[in-house]
Description:
The protein is α/β, with parallel strands linked by helices. It has helices at residues 4-19, 79-92, 114-124, 142-147, 184-192, 205-220, 241-250, 261-274, 288-294, 317-329, 335-354, 360-367; strands at 59-66, 100-108, 129-134, 152-154, 167-169, 196-202, 225-233, 254-258, 279-282, 302-305, 395-404, 407-411, 419-423, 435-437.
Amino acid sequence: MRARWLAVLTLVALAAAACGGGSSGKSNKSTSTTAGAAATTAPPGGWPPVNESGVSATEIRVSGVTSTTNPVGGLYGTAFDGVQAYFDMVNAQGGIYGRKLTIAKRHDDQLTNNLREVQAIISQDNAFAVLPVATVFSFSGAQLLAQNNIPTFGWGINSEWTGPPNLFGSYGALCNGSGCPSLIFPYAASKLGKKKIGVLAYNVQASSDCVDGIKASFDKYPTAKVVYSTKALSFGTTDMSTDVKHMIDAGVDFVTTCLDTNGVLTLAREMRQQGLNALQFLPNAYDHDFMDKNGGFFQGSVVIVQEAPIETTPKFKALNDYISWMDKGGYTKTENAEIGWANADLFVTGLRAAGPTFSRQKVIDAINKLTDYDAGGILPPVDWTKQHTDLHYPRSCIGYMQIENSKFVPLWSQPGKPFTCWDGNPATFQEAKPYNRQ
């Protein structure tokens, strides 16, 4: 079980993209950056009082919990930096209804103590809402937050985000395993002209489910064939020589894994050692520091992202705001930081829509009316009227990047539109109609 969360990390981008994402045609984007200035301009007589936990005449308090301490150096705690940068931007404009947005406390669940930290938030922090949440082992405090009806926002990689109307994971409900075929990987194989796929996973259920999902994707959309797969790797293994030998014998020209970052690096080194000249497909590798150090092993490989990459050009307003305010705070721009920024945007969107006599319930209700929420283009859109529970929501959207000289370069996108998207669940690959959107 120790490796379960690592496997979840590698499969989540593929699974989340299969179950939520882009929509063509007109959108009804609702973001706090476009919600108007009413939240900063006081009415005659001043702002009305609000009798809610974490709300005073001068501030609105939130607390969050992330797996800041973890064995692989994951930068999950940077989600707090993204939230803080967004709050800095809003506070510089006068705050919300005359109140500053404040992070009361940054909790660290150290992978295994999520329930304990959530209990502390509820009992000790006097917080109106919970954000960010970026926990990678399990979101065991989810039920408690649902029972207390606290608006909660976070990195939606855990199954516990699915269901409760007050829990807003960044991608909506997740769909994993063989029941969730996706166009994401078959599309990449088709674009690259790859025909023989190798898939490697750890010997734990979440990682195995990832393999099943990839196989199901190619069964439904047979742009290539999975010719080698394994679910037998042990977490922390440093010997993949046999697997690489089998892939060479099978003629593999495209490799994907359900492994952590250390695992894909071990694999890349072994592939080079044995002369397997195949690209990797990397669901969890949008890490600039990692690629600066190790990009030579991944030249030409494909990385997928669930948020608008900072390499997008031209940059749209929300992305420029994110970069600018992260730089002003001296924060490192990471995947989790950008998700934290988007979490804060959704929270503020809910506050503004709820009005000056806001409450927790009004914020929850307001967000659950949004049908095409995308944080101003930072995320693929989510229909919150459906995507708390709809595991097979019929749209998908993903960003593709390619590694060139250790740098991330947008792939198969259009200027300013980083996401490749599909509507519906096409029966065949030929029926799929990809398009790009911000």
